[in-house]
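Entry for the shared binder. Reason: the reviewer on the internal report wants the predicted structure included alongside the sequence.
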Amino acid sequence: MITALIYIIVAIGIYVLIDIVIYVASGQGPRLLTEVVDRACKASDAQNAKEIAADFLEKLRDWNENKRKMEYKCVWVASRYAKALDSLKSRWASDWPVELVEEVDSLAEQMHDAVPQYFNSLFRAFAIAIILALCIRALIIQAFKIPSGSMIPTLYVGDQLLVTKFTYGVKLPFSGKRLLDFRKPRLGDIVVFKPPKSVMSSWVEHELRLPFSNRVLYKWKSQVDFIKRIVGLPGNKVEVKDGVLHVNDRPMPLVPEKEFEYERANSAFVRNVHSYLYIESIDGRPHTVLYESNNLEDEDWGPYFVDEGEFFAMGDNRDDSADSRTWTSDPAQIKNIRGKAFIIHFSWDSIHGRPRFNRMGRIIR
């Protein structure tokens, strides 16, 4: 829901920005016309004032007929026009023909009518922005923020991703069924998914408190999404032998690369974690993984047979990831996959309080 609200705010902000750009780029606006009105009101000669006023009315007719849509976008313009017209009429109305006075009144009334029309168009724009934002989030793309270090070195804490919702098909609301199934999940895909309900670390507690008081009105829990790499699909046998991932007894090549250090923030301090970087290839698709040791003889796990409708997921930070290796009694379900991780659009280093510009724009593999 928070992500949807962000989408809505961004959509509305873009809409308002476009309106302002169009309004400024048009080269028109209240300043041009109110300056003419001021000159007409200050003219010492009635004939001169009439000429200025006639020029003003010509501009106002053009504005009213051809540029009213722009005028609707700025409600304060209508009030300034009306005020300027009232001052012009009160200064020179006795010397003007009746038809001219009536035209001024008519145009002033039309400008006043622009105010409710502005609010109507603004309400429609907000409603459209909300609908588009919800549709985009539900069907096309969703933002996701990395909360933990389980996917280091591929993904860091503070990385903000865009997740494609349509890669594995459009999921029908309140159902596990998908339409337009473009492709099935593959080994090696990094996916965002709803973890099994038994995973305690996926639940977050919330409290609604009375303002200016410590009194709790309501408590509830919500489940956060996880992000991991798929290493097993229905019918697969998944096993780790000496640190090497095996799928259906076929080893996924693991090549030692170098030593690797990263910073990890605990509740009270920051510590450097020393690890070892490896290049792992799943079905010919290479990516990096971490182990805490360069001796993987004791890194054994499994085997596990993935049943129909399930998938087996592991974090790239193999010794610091709560994943399917601990959920064997309540495995992750394919129907709970939200989407496939696509690109890092922003990254924030909370330890040093600065953005990671070198990570922005990276395609996730």
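Summary line for the report: Confidence is low (pLDDT under 50) at residues 69-76.
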